[in-house]
Every structure is written in C-alpha cells, then in structure tokens.
C-alpha cells in the first residue's frame, strides 16, 4: 500500500519552481497529487517539466477531499483565507510566509488547526540552515559570555524573478521588505532572544505603497536577559548582509554568503582570533527547504515537534503590524526641498 502523504502545491510561481517542488520530489514520504495555479498553462508546464502524473488545476476547492496536506505558496493576500478552507476540512498546511496579513487572520488559522489537532507549519526555511542551528548552540553554551547586542543587515537591488508581480501591490503583498525578507530575520531573533519589549521603526514608505528600505531597533527580554539590536533592510542597495552578535567574551557572525557556518571572534592569550564553526556531520535531508518539508511530514506522523509553527508566526505578524502602525519616515535628505526653495 502507498502510505505516502498525498500533497498538493498551491501556486506555481518562482518559489515553488525553485524550492518547494524540488524538495517535494526529493522526499520519499510525500506524493504530489496536484499543482494549482490561476494560470492553468503555468501549472501544466511545471508538471510536464518534471514529468509528473498529477492534476493541474485552477481551483483549489476541487482538492478538499483528495489530499492529506498542502503547501500554500499563493500570493500573500490569499494565504489566510485558503489556509482556513483546508484546515477546516481537516487538511494539514505548510504555508509560505507570511501566514496572514493581519493578526486576526493569523490567529484564526492557528485556532482552526488547534481545534482539529492539525499541523500548521510556516515556511521559515532559514530556521533549518546550519548557521541558525550552530548559533543557537553557541548561545546556549555561553561561548560569547554575557550578550551585549546584535546588528543584522540584509539588502541588495531587488532581483527575485516573481511570476505574478504581487510583491509590488500593497493589497496583495501586505507590505514591502519588512514583511518579505524581514520576517525571516524577526522569526529567528524572537526564537533566539525572546519577545520584543520595545521597538523603533523607520521606513521609506510615504503612505500609499510599500517600503523598499527599513531600519528597526529592538529590545528583547528572554533567556539571555535584556538585549538590544538593530536591523537594516533594503531592496535598493547592497548592505553588509550578515548578522553580528556581540558578547563580553567574543562575537559570532553569520554571513548570507555562507549559511552553513558561524564565524566566532575571540581573544586567546591576548590575541584576536577567528574560527569558522561548521557541523561535523550534517545528517538528515540536505537543503533548508527539504529539511523544512521533512519536519512538516514528521510532525504529521507524530514523530517530531514542529520547528516553526503558526503561533510563532503570530508573534512575528504582531510585531510587523505594530511597526507599520507606528512607522516614522526614514530620513531622505537628498529628496527634501529646502524651505527657501519651497517658499
């Protein structure tokens, strides 16, 4: 008997083509029964490319009685309503971030999953990068001493090959760089350092569109005490693209260019030294999306605890929404008109 999980992928855009579908095809515990997209030709072309014998359809409602689980990779504004449709039918969901555009929608998804004892996973694949796992161990082992703070920058000219372009419409995306890549950073920071007690947020959204640049100051209260940090995000310019965590006895750095390692900076015999720390044995599935999928599958089977669940995503959505509500204008002196000129 085929005891693989019957799975459908909703949305056949760039993230499905490049990450979700390759992970699904590499996992022995799942079977693709359908690809769903509003553009039927896009779904069919993807199925043909991978020689899949599965349905290619436009309407996800046709699947409500035919699947055990779904990966929701639809545009952001469709995440919550479609999640709820499947969860209320008893179907497990792995949803791309963000799980919803509002706090109320995110909570509703979590409550629907809890009521039916379903797995509701969030697409936070960065949690499964070796560097994230190593840094957690570095913090738990107090290798940096008392923590003093962190700085995290991520930015480059936007080059994601989006199929639908929804990222640039606020009604569909819900926000800009903070809600897009920023949630990956916030998700891990909250997991490492605990809840946020204070924040200060600035971006370049002038009120009607989406932000391309943002700066966020945070203060956490968690397992390592009170810690302050700073995030800088950009879709227009290249930043340092890394995380630096500072402690009294040393620093730890993660670079976007190498998510498999953490660099430690310490003093030994009065000399500044650095060491690159990697996992000696990288057991289990390879690649963050495959490890994420495997955790989803094992959670459905009751063999593992979900690493990134819906309630953790609620905390991130709450913080993002509060940032947008209390946003200050990012200074842009080059675009300001001098008062004398304006007069």
Fraction of residues in H or I helices: 25-40%
CATH fold type of one domain = Dihydrodipicolinate Reductase, domain 2
Overall pLDDT: 92
* Quaternary assembly: single chain
* Largest sheet properties: 9 strands, mixed
Give the C-level CATH assignment of one domain. Answer: Alpha Beta
The beta-strand count equals 15
Radius of gyration from the alpha-carbon trace, in angstroms: 21 Å
Helices and strands, in order, run as EHEHEEHEHEHEHHEEEEEEEHHEH
- CATH architecture descriptor of one domain: 2-Layer Sandwich
The general outline is globular
Measured between the Cα atoms of the first and last residue, the distance is 80 Å
- Let me know the CATH homologous superfamily of one domain: Dihydrodipicolinate Reductase, domain 2
Q: Percent of residues in beta strands?
A: 25-35%
Tally of separate helices? 10
Query: Widest sheet: strand order?
Result: 14-13-12-11-7-10-9-8-15
Low-confidence stretches: none
Class by helix and strand content?
alpha/beta
Descriptive tags:
Dihydrodipicolinate Reductase, domain 2, six-stranded parallel β-sheet, 343 residues, alpha/beta, globular, 15 strands
């Amino acid at each position: 008997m085929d005891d693989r999980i019957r799975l459908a992928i909703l949305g056949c855009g760039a993230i499905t083509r490049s990450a979700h579908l390759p992970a699904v095809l590499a996992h022995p515990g799942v079977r693709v029964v359908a690809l769903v997209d509003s553009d039927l030709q896009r779904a069919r072309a993807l199925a043909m490319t991978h020689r899949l014998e599965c349905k290619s359809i436009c309407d996800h409602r046709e699947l409500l009685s035919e699947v055990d689980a779904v990966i929701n990779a639809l545009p952001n504004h469709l995440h919550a309503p479609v999640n709820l449709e499947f969860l209320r039918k008893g179907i497990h969901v792995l949803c791309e971030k963000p799980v919803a555009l509002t706090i109320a929608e995110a909570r509703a998804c979590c409550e629907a999953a809890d009521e039916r004892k379903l797995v509701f996973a969030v697409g936070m694949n960065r949690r499964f990068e070796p560097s994230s796992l190593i840094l957690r161990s570095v913090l738990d082992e107090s290798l940096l001493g008392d923590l003093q703070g962190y700085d995290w920058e991520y930015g480059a000219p936007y080059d994601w090959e989006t199929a639908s372009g929804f990222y640039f419409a606020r009604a569909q995306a819900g926000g800009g760089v903070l809600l897009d890549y920023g949630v990956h950073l916030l998700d891990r920071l909250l997991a490492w350092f605990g809840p946020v007690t204070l924040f200060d947020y600035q971006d370049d959204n002038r009120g009607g569109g989406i932000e391309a640049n943002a700066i966020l100051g945070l203060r956490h209260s968690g397992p390592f005490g009170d810690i302050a940090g700073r995030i800088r995000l950009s879709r227009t310019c290249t930043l340092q693209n890394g995380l630096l965590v500072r402690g009294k006895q040393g620093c730890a750095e993660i670079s976007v260019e190498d998510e498999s390692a953490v660099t430690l900076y310490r003093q030994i015999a009065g000399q500044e030294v650095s060491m690159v720390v990697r996992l000696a044995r990288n057991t289990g599935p390879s690649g963050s999306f495959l490890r994420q999928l495997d955790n989803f599958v094992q959670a459905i089977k009751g063999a593992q605890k979900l690493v990134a669940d819906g309630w953790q995503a609620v905390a991130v959505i709450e913080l993002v929404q509060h940032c947008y509500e209390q946003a200050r204008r990012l200074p842009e002196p080059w675009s300001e008109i001098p008062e004398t000129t304006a007069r």
